[in-house]
Amino acid sequence: MDYRKQKQYVSFVRTRLKRNEKITLTLINHDAIEHDIEISPFLYQTFNGGHNSSSSHTQHSKKDNVLHLHASSKTTNQLTFVPKIQGTYQFYCTIPGHKELGMIGHIRISN
Predict the structure, then answer these.
(1) DSSP character for 66?
(2) What is the CATH number of the domain that holds 70?
(3) pLDDT score at 72
(4) Listed residue (30, 34, 28) closest to 53, CA to CA
(5) The total number of structural domains that make up the chain
(6) Residue 32 and residue 18: Cα distance in Å, rounded?
(7) 32: containing domain
(8) Rounded Cα distance, 40 and 87, in Å
(9) Which of 9, 43, 99, 108 could make an SS bond with 92 (beta carbons 3.0 to 4.6 A apart)?
């Protein structure tokens, strides 16, 4: 995922993933403000700590079946996980107003 302020968009390397395949999600934030990505509900197994956030990021709560990755301004963050259930899932930025600005997308998990 690549957040860029100039065009307010998210770009992807791949949006179709396979169930039980190990994936590393990289959130690149070029903006001067924080961004994140959340998929909920989403059943997955994590390899680096589950909910990945910083102490300054308080827009969400840690819940089961929620994939959350946060990147402070001008930083990059990663989360490695294995999706467990096939389907199409919506993801979005949870920072207030960002979802409404179009920071939304979908990923498809297949068998």
Answers:
(1) -
(2) 2.60.40.420
(3) 94
(4) 34
(5) 1
(6) 33
(7) 2-110
(8) 12
(9) 99
Q: Is 101 exposed, middle or buried (0-12, 13-18, 19+ CB in 10 A)?
A: exposed
Q: What is the DSSP letter of 33?
A: S
Q: Using an 8 Å Cβ cutoff, are 95 and 36 in contact?
A: yes
Task: Tell me the Ramachandran region of residue 24: left when phi exceeds 0, alpha when psi lies from -120 to 50, beta otherwise.
Answer: beta
* Share of the chain residues as helix, strand and coil, in percent rounded to the nearest 5: 0, 45, 55
**Cβ distance 46 to 22 under 8 Å?**
no
Residues paired with residue 91 on neighbouring β-strands, in sequence order: 39, 105
